[in-house]
Design goal:
With about 250 residues, the protein is an alpha/beta fold. The chain is about 50% helix and about 15% strand. Strand 2, helix 2 and strand 3 form a beta-alpha-beta unit. The chain binds NADP nicotinamide-adenine-dinucleotide phosphate.
Amino acid sequence: MKNVLILGANSAMARAMAREIAGPEVQLILASRNVQELEKTAQDLTLRKKSPRPIVLAFDACKLEQHERFVAQVLAKVKTLDEVYLFFGQLHPQEQAQKDFQLAQEMLVANYVGAASILERVALHMEEKGRGLIVGVSSVAGDRGRQSNYLYGSSKAGLTTYLQGLRNRLAHKGVHVLTVKPGFVDTPMTHHMKKGLLFARPETIAAGIVKAKRRKKDTVYLPGFWKWIMLVVTSIPEWIFKKMRM
Ligand SMILES: NC(=O)c1ccc[n+]([C@@H]2O[C@H](COP(=O)([O-])OP(=O)(O)OC[C@H]3O[C@@H](n4cnc5c(N)ncnc54)[C@H](OP(=O)(O)O)[C@@H]3O)[C@@H](O)[C@H]2O)c1
């Protein structure tokens, strides 16, 4: 039996991922703030995928003081964690966050500090076991600071660099770390945005993660064309970039 923890399991992408992973040989642990929603996903997976009933646990990325106890609670139930997926995230529109720093703080704490806090605890466990996989969902928004989303983007830049360092540390210990950088995805997080051709479905991201995992990739842009878009975006000299409206 493989034990798989999904953090932020109510996210649209996480639900698509859970449907990809679930099966008779997988014990899922679904964790997020809204436990009632998790219960619905757990029931659906049990019926549709014939998987063992997922374990449902309350988890808040911003309640840092509870993270050590949370991991202990998970390990009391499953003993070993084979795979951990970090999907939780917050996005407040840049203009609102500029006017109300409380919103900016929520993003910075949930997306970066909270992520580092929980993954450090997970890393200790996997390091000791000498095996495991950590998948962290960051964003293309972390590749370059832009006026339209630098508060969210900087939280994801922090997460990307954190995951890079974690990968370097754990590569020597038999643990693999995969960084996922999605572009625009049609989920509740982007409900306020006008949808266009660049928007992907959560299922596309989940299928891309499965493929990247199989290929033992370190970092993956999803869909893949974002690699080329971000290559262009990050190649523009700063003296030109600062004058652009992006
Ligand atoms: N959508 C995009 O275009 C896009 C692009 C690039 C990267 N991403 C990243 O991809 C990941 C998944 O995004 P999504 O679009 O699937 O999101 P989503 O459907 O809007 O869901 C986000 C989830 O994050 C959870 N969450 C927020 N704050 C939390 C906290 N403090 N503690 C625990 N859980 C928390 C929420 O859980 P509850 O419902 O339980 O409160 C919510 O279900 C995020 O990290 C996001 O930043 C998204």
